[in-house]
Structure formats: structure tokens, C-alpha cells
Amino acid sequence: MCASKSATEGDMAANQFRQRAAGVLSTVTLTMVAVAMLVGAALVESKLEALLGNRIGGFIASDDNRAIAFQRIWRSTYWAFGWTLPGTPDLDGLDSRLEAAGLKLGSPVLVRIFKREFELEIWLQKNGRFERFATYPICRYSGRLGPKLKQGDHQSPEGIYTVSAGQLNPASRWHRSFNLGYPNLYDRSHGRTGSYLMVHGGCSSVGCYAMTNAVVDEIWRIVTAALNGGQKRFQVQAMPFRLTDANLAQRKDHPLHAFWTQLKTVHDLFENSGIPPHVDICGQRYAVSPGSAGNDGSRSLTRSCKSSNSVATN
After folding, report:
1. 232 to each of 49, 213, 219, 296, 304, how far by Cα in Å?
2. pTM of the full predicted structure?
3. What domains does the chain contain, in order, with CATH numbers?
């Protein structure tokens, strides 16, 4: 009787071990398959422009493109497994975070995007100047560093945009979204084409900035409160990377250096003052001048060459 019982217990233990082992193996296999699929997608996305001279698309030829491709891999993997991206604020504690920062919902908002760093910042106005409230990890955007040029190039925009209430979509295919307003006057002056370039939920992109559903819910709450509070539109500064002197100098030979130098003027004026600069379009260049105290960034881009601090382009 005892021997039979021991044998039964032994069989049960063996079965449990096999089940656990099978579960672990299944998890490892699924993880490997997911990573392989994501690597394959990144390789396709890099377009494999050439296979000569140690060049495999952007992976080897460009540190930026290689880094961006691998960022996409691990971020998409996190999202696929339902994990929260590192760097995500405490989304359940919005009210307490606002209180700790001395900020409040309904204050004017400004958004900054940094593609190379995969970050989106929310700034809120306080006493006439904007203070950075939150930095969110971008789950995915498509393309490389550089502006969107034409419909179908899969590039995510770079430039200065404004967003009004009419550009918000609460029933987006990707949960919630707001339209950046591409092409703006600058884009159109260069003959750029495309439409419906968004900041939205999820983690998939064809020219948009995907933030995950949970993150876009918090962004949505902040920007709708600002618009409902009286801000006519909010400014979005979509930058290729953090436009420090050092970062721009590293790319001094890049074909887009002149364009990025224009964006740096906007970047630096806001960074140094906390006040959105006035941005106009003069011919085919951004014309930028310091904003006045209390400016909330709601002014639309217009065609004007009156700025005393306009920046020429090649």
C-alpha cells in the first residue's frame, strides 16, 4: 500500500515537473520568436539600402539608425508582453504628482518630442512660464531622424506644430489621438505631403508617435483640460534629438544640419526662458523670435518675415 502510494506521489511530482518545464520552455520559445520577429521587422524597416562595404541599411552605417532600430526592438517587446516601459511616470498618481509639482490641470500645456531619445515631454504653465511636468517614453515611431517629406515615406514629422480641440480624436483606431497638423506652413513651402500624423495610443506607427494606451490617456487628460480651460491651441515642438551644442556639432556634416539649426533656435529660446517663442514662416525658413511673458504658445504659425531672430536655411 505504502509502495503504491509512493509511486503515485512520484508520478504526480514527475508530471508537475514536466508541466513546469514545458511552461518554461514555452515561455522561452515565445520570447525568442517574438524577438526574432521584432529583429526581422527592424531589418525590413531599415530598408537594407546596401549590403556592401560593411553597410547594412542604417544598422552599421549610422549610430543613430542602429540605436533607433534596437530601441524599437526592446520597446515593442515590452509592449507585446504587457510590460510598462521603463521611465513611465506613476500614471495612477497624476493628481498627487501635480500637487507635488505645484501645478494643476487646466493650465496651458506645451509638448516637446525628442525622436532620438524616444521621449515626449509635457510642460505646464505656472506664473507665466512653463515648467516640465512629465517625461514619457515613446513606444514607437517610424522612419529615421529627419522630417517627413512625402506621403508614404513612413517618416514621423519634425518641426513646430499647433494642436486645437478640433484635432483631437477620442475614438481613434489607436485608442485616443491628436493630429499634429502636418503639413504646416513650413512643410507646405517645401512641397511636403502627407496627412493624419498623430500622437496616439498603442505601439505601432506609420509616421505617428505611439505612446501606449495608458500613457496617451494621461496625456489626453492634461491636454483636454488645458483646451477646456481656455487655451486655444497648444504648441508641439517635434525635435530630432535634444538640440544641445554638442549633439548638433556631432552631426555637422549631416545633410539636415541646416534644418536642425533652425529648430535649435526654437529649442534654445524655450529651454532658456520657459516661454514658447513666436514662430513664423519666412519664405522657406522658420522665423523665430522670443515669446513675451505669459505667452501660452497658442499662436498659429503665419507667413511673416518680421522676426528679428529669423534663421536662414540652405
Report:
1. 44, 25, 17, 9, 21
2. 0.81
3. 2-80 (no CATH), 91-303 (2.40.440.10)
